[in-house]
C-alpha cells in the first residue's frame, strides 16, 4: 500500500495511497438536479420561443414541463443539504465567487417567473404579469441550464475543474435535448415539429460536445471513460443516438415512436449528467489524478512555487 | 480578473479591530509523532471521536483531516536515506552513502536498519485565497480579524460546496450533524490572547504559533540550517505569498516532497479561474438561447 517504501521509486508517490482532496459529499439529488434544472430552464426558453413562433399547442405543453423541472429542483437541492431547514441561508447574501449562491438566486427568479408563465399558459389568468414573466423565465432559464457546470468546475476536483471550458456546453446541449424530447413526448405529432427539431439538434450537440471534451481534455479526461462514469457515458451515447434516430425516422408520423424516442433522449441526458458526476468523484478519490498533474507542473517549471528548498544558503524555488 | 472578483474578506475590512495575521509554523523535522496536538485539539474544541479502526499504515489510525480530525499526524516509513535515490545505485554504494548520512547526525534518521521515519502534524492551511470561503453560498465561512478562516456553526447549512473546493481536503461534513467542521485556529483562544491548544500541547515545539511574519523568518533560518546539515530535500511548504493560494496561515517545513505526506505539490485556488469558468457558462447559455431561437423560429417557413 505504502508507495514510499522499497528500493525502487514508483512513478508517483502518495501518502499510503490515500486521497489528497475530499470526495464531494453530494447525494444522488445533485446529478438529478443537473438534469431537472436543464430540463426546466431549457423548456422555459423553448415554451417562450414556441409562443413567439405561433406554436400555441407546443407552448401550452412546454410551460408546465418548465414549471415541473424548475419546481422540483429546489426540493432536490434542499433534500441534499446537511441541515435542510436552513435552506433560506442560501439567500443571506449574493456572491459571484460562489456559483451556488448565484444559482440560488437564479432559481428564485426562475421559479417565480415560470410559475406565473405556466399559470397563464394553463388557465389564461395573470395575463398582465405573464407578459413580463414569460420572456424573463425564458431568459433566466438559459443560465439555470449552464451555471451548474460552473458550480462543479469551481472546485479542486481535477475532472471538473480541468473541464471548466467544456462542461457548460455539454450541459447546455443536454438542456436543449431534454426540453425538446419532453415536449416531443407531450405534444401531438402534428404540433411538435419544432420540439422534434430541438430534440435532434440538442442530441447532436450533446454528442458532439462530449466528443470534443474527450479530445481536448486528454489525460485529464480519463475519469470520464472508466468505472461507473464510463458506463454512464456509454449508456448516454447509446440512448441519445437511438432516441434521436427514432424521433428523426418516425417521430413525425407515430406518437408512440415520438414518445419512446423522446424518453430515450431524456434518459441519455440523465446518464450524461451521472457520467459527469461520477467522473468527478472518481478523480477526487484517486490521488494519481490530483497529484499527477500538479507534480508535472512543478517538474516542468510551471508550478506556483508551493514548495521551496534551501539552496546555496538561501530559500529558493525548486522541485527536486 | 481574479483581483476584481475576489471577495472582500480580509482583515482590512475590520478597520481598527484588525489584528496581525496569526498562524502556525509546523516544523516536521522535530515532530515525534506523539499526537498530543490531536488530543489537545479534540479536548479543547470538543471534537467527537473519529474511529477509523486499525489501518496498518505505520502509526496512523487518524488517516486524514476531516470534520472530526482537525489535526492529523502523518507517519511515513522510508527505507530511502535522505537525498539519496537508492534505486539508481548499487547496494554497496547505497550502504556507503547510508554511512555518510548517519555521520551527519540528522536527528530524524533512525540508526540501524536504515529506516527513515517521517512524522508531520497536518492542519487547515488558513489560505490567503481560501477556495472554501469563496464558494460558501451562505457566508458561514468567514475571515476573522486574525486572518484565519472559520466556519460559523450557526450559519452553515451543510451544502457541502466547500468540501471539494478545498485543494487540501481539509473540510468535511460531520455525520449525524450535517454541517461542515474544520480547524478554527482556536478562534476563541486567540480572542483571549491564548495560543491554540495544539501548539500549547506540542512538547517539541514542532507546532509553533505566532504572527505569520515572525514565523516565516524563523522557518527560513531553520530550513537553511537543515540544508547545511545535509537534509537536501528539506523544503518550506506554503511559506510564501506567491503560490497558488497566495500563501497560507499554516505552513510547514517538510523533509521530502509534499505528496509524500499526502499534501498536494502545487495547490491552486479554483477561484483564480473564476473568470474563464463564468465566461464559458455565459457563452454556453447565450449559445443555447440563440440555437433554440434559430431552430424553433427558423423552421417556421
From TrEMBL, chain A:
Keywords: Cell membrane, Membrane, Transmembrane, Transmembrane helix. It comes from the Bacteria. It is a multi-pass membrane protein. It is found in: Cell membrane. The chain crosses the membrane at residues 30-50, 62-82, 102-124, 136-157, 169-189. Residues 293-320 are annotated as: Disordered. Residues 309-320 have a biased composition (Basic and acidic residues). Belongs to the NrfD family. PANTHER family: PROTEIN NRFD. This is Formate-dependent nitrite reductase membrane component NrfD. It comes from Conexibacter arvalis.
Automatic annotation (TrEMBL), chain B:
[4Fe-4S] cluster 2 binds at residues 41, 183, 186, 198. Residues 22-52, 115-146, 147-176 form the 4Fe-4S ferredoxin-type domain. Keywords: 4Fe-4S, Iron, Iron-sulfur, Membrane, Metal-binding, Repeat, Transmembrane, Transmembrane helix. Gene3D superfamilies: 3.30.70.20. Its cofactor is [4Fe-4S] cluster. Binds 4 [4Fe-4S] clusters per subunit. SUPFAM superfamilies: 4Fe-4S ferredoxins. This is Formate dehydrogenase iron-sulfur subunit. It comes from Conexibacter arvalis.
